[in-house]
């Protein structure tokens, strides 16, 4: 029982804590609502769970052999996060019918695979909750993480949707988008800086 609690706690802390994916979801929830953000939430959840499975099946051994691979991934991921931040910051606020591009399932999936935070969380989770002699431990962790991640990311979309009460005019919504996009870009540079120091 304590192992299950540890798996749940680890999954919750890693999923609910602010990061690039959560910032995009918060902004999308505020701009488009929960329902239209759900595809991105699903992409982020499935993308992370697939990454966790990929690393759990042994890809971390390749990273041990080629540590520069993680640095190249951090560069590519940071550039993608900057791109997503630019899209959010430059999006035009619309309080009526929204015809702008919604964050997609594919973007959510890719953002997890290019997110250094997701790689670190996956490698830490695999090292903590995988047992060579018992695959059931890792599969249980994978299942728990999937559920917790879905609920955590979904809660960010609900929070974004509820914050629209404060963002009830175009100027406030535009400032919010610029703030979220700017924070995402700063996060990308911080993640990149932390990989090289």
UniProtKB/TrEMBL annotation:
<keyword id="KW-1133">Transmembrane helix</keyword>
<dbReference type="GO" id="GO:0005886">
    <property type="term" value="C:plasma membrane"/>
</dbReference>
<feature type="transmembrane region" description="Helical">
    <location>
        <begin position="109"/>
        <end position="130"/>
    </location>
</feature>
<feature type="transmembrane region" description="Helical">
    <location>
        <begin position="72"/>
        <end position="89"/>
    </location>
</feature>
<keyword id="KW-0812">Transmembrane</keyword>
<keyword id="KW-1003">Cell membrane</keyword>
<dbReference type="InterPro" id="IPR001123">
    <property type="entry name" value="LeuE-type"/>
</dbReference>
<keyword id="KW-0472">Membrane</keyword>
<feature type="transmembrane region" description="Helical">
    <location>
        <begin position="137"/>
        <end position="159"/>
    </location>
</feature>
<feature type="transmembrane region" description="Helical">
    <location>
        <begin position="179"/>
        <end position="196"/>
    </location>
</feature>
<dbReference type="Pfam" id="PF01810">
    <property type="entry name" value="LysE"/>
</dbReference>
<dbReference type="GO" id="GO:0033228">
    <property type="term" value="P:cysteine export across plasma membrane"/>
</dbReference>
<dbReference type="GO" id="GO:0015171">
    <property type="term" value="F:amino acid transmembrane transporter activity"/>
</dbReference>
<protein>
    <submittedName>
        <fullName>LysE family translocator</fullName>
    </submittedName>
</protein>
<feature type="transmembrane region" description="Helical">
    <location>
        <begin position="39"/>
        <end position="60"/>
    </location>
</feature>
